[in-house]
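User: These chains co-purify. Model them together.
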Amino acid sequence: MSDPSAYAYPNSNSARLSTTSSVYTDSRQTRTKSLLERNLNRTKGAEVSLSALSFLFSEMIQYAQKRVNGIQDLERKLNELGYRVGLRMLELLVWRDRNPKRETRVLSILYFIHTALWKGLFGKQADSLEKSTENEDEFMISDNEPILTKYISVPRELSQLNCNAFIAGVVEAILDSAQFPARVTAHTVPIDGFPLRTTILIKFDKEVLEREEMLK
Amino acid sequence: MAATYYFAIVGTKDSPLYETELTSSSKAASNFDTTPKDDHRHLNQFIIHSALDVVEEVQWNNQALYLKVIDRFNEYYVSAFVTAGNARLLLLHDVKSEDSIKNFFNEVHEMYIKVFMNPFYETNTPITSQQFDSKVKFIARRFL
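Assistant: Joint model of the two components:
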């Protein structure tokens, strides 16, 4: 599964939108378009090879590992890396939707993450969306076979580590920027048949619940 | 009749990321027009800032991105557009023309996302790109 067309050189004959920026590009003798002229839908549905992504991700983890001490720190560093991706995913996914709209309720933003985000990142929906029975503010999104960490085997000393902290960061960024601040973490919760099953635990801040109450 | 507009992009922490004055008249910036407007320039920022509260009220009851006219100040209308990441595009105008303003917002939204996609762009920092500025002015000439 590979289609690096997302990064292929664009066609140099494609139309330019504004005359001012063509002065820039002509003088630079370059065939690439300026940032503001690239089509946002060009990479829609494009796929990246899993081996390339796994390689990149492994380098990211090694990079983080050199700069932290402890599992919590490592998870937090991965969370921060995922955060930057999440910010951009939200804006892009909403824009690409045929009827773009903002989510104003907790359940609808969670549903958006469960379907649209997972589809945008992994090509399939997440496997389950659950609300915790013990706490009002906790929700769980589970993935039976997380693609990102498919080739990661965690050593016994770090058995608490779940590298899907990166995905937790993506989710956290989406919730934060949509104005649903929350703490998001990734946990390994194996069940029969799916030893690598990961659950993203979302714990909303108090103000989110208060606002939900007011909106009811 | 020259219709003047003041357009601002306000980030999530309520600081302006981009501001510009636009005018639909082709005789833009003629000396006759600008002198009375000079007094109003600082007022624009105040009007936009106070409109932010109204935007916040309206955005939780409305799932749309384009919020149309949400506030008035004397003869000025404030139209708002909220992106998915809660960045607000606000337009101060004195003529009501919903359709063209909607198109304007949609085009600028697309430009904003393109700037936002840049991994080197930090959220809530001012947008200083010359290209972005000229693009916004171009879009304004087209739609407003």
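Helices of chain B lie at 31-38, 41-59, 98-117, 130-143.
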